[in-house]
């Protein structure tokens, strides 16, 4: 008799739990996939774990599709078809058209510090094939003369690129993917979203906050010691992107050449910065602007931040001398990491 009562009680508890949606502690689930030449990690805190597998599959498949459409090296990608177009109009899919229009807007607003037509120069330095070389001054002048995003014409899904020019979305693709992935999390877990999407090589999107309402805490790499973080930024429904010379580079005759090029010279941008981090609700903006601000340098980059409040971004600059500058809007969200507490941080107002 006692056993029967106990069984009935247990069934009652299980039913109540199922009906209430089983409100246990949110569960931590982590997944890794490989796309855009890097390992991409998703961390979810979810109340309904049953939907996490579905969320992950949707996101990983979408990411793989995005990668194959936007990749500059994939033969069948939309970007490669545009690059082989020899001046003829090319019809691209919706994703490529959207990514291109957003990238071109950023090229325009940064006055060409970001320029998606820098690809022939990126190739000439051997960054695409990882077969590095230093082009001659003459070659660089010729390459620089052909970098001009304003010559790219996009009408609906039709893109026309002048012959001899090539495009590359490498400076914004991870950000574009990050925004799309974050939207998937919000669609699947409306109102309960809590996820961290780490797109590798320094593009990260925080969806919601951690369970209990605490923000995600994300480190910024010390460009002088890429194995350490010099600062932590607290993020909630916010993305962060870092561009730095330490991320991809080669050395020749004692000189370091990195992968971020100045479109004016077609050579690695020597702006006196070693990294730029951008914090904003848009991952695409973080990705594109961190590259552009690296090209601009501290002074021009600060003026850009002051003159573009509508872009709603904050930034952290690290100079080649190791000086740290951050914009005022990061007050209460930016902290020096352990071991870096004595470093001076100049606040840009
Ligand atoms: P990121 O790592 O996001 O800063 O982007 C750098 C990548 O974008 C490089 O590996 C190049 O493929 C490409 N790139 C380099 N310089 C520029 C530039 N000034 N504008 C646009 N893309 C660039
Ligand atoms: Mg970028």
CATH class of the domain at 78-160: Mainly Alpha
Low-confidence stretches: 5-23
Q: What class do helices, strands and sheet pairing give? A: alpha+beta
Backbone shape: globular
Kindly identify the CATH topology of the domain at 78-160.
T-fold
Classify the oligomer. Answer: single chain
Helix and strand string, N-terminal first? HEEHHEHHHEEHEEEEEEEEEEHHEEEE
- Ligand kinds: adenosine monophosphate, magnesium ion
Q: Major β-sheet, in short? A: 9 strands, mixed
Counted beta strands: 19
- Terminal CA distance: 75 Å
Which sequence of strands runs across the widest sheet? Answer: 1-2-6-7-10-15-16-17-19
Beta-strand percentage range = 25-35%
- Number of helices in the DSSP assignment: 9
- Fraction of residues in helix: 25-40%
Radius of gyration: 23 Å
In the CATH hierarchy, what is the architecture of the domain at 78-160 at level 2? Orthogonal Bundle
Mean pLDDT: 91
Assigned CATH superfamily of the domain at 78-160 = ApbE-like superfamily
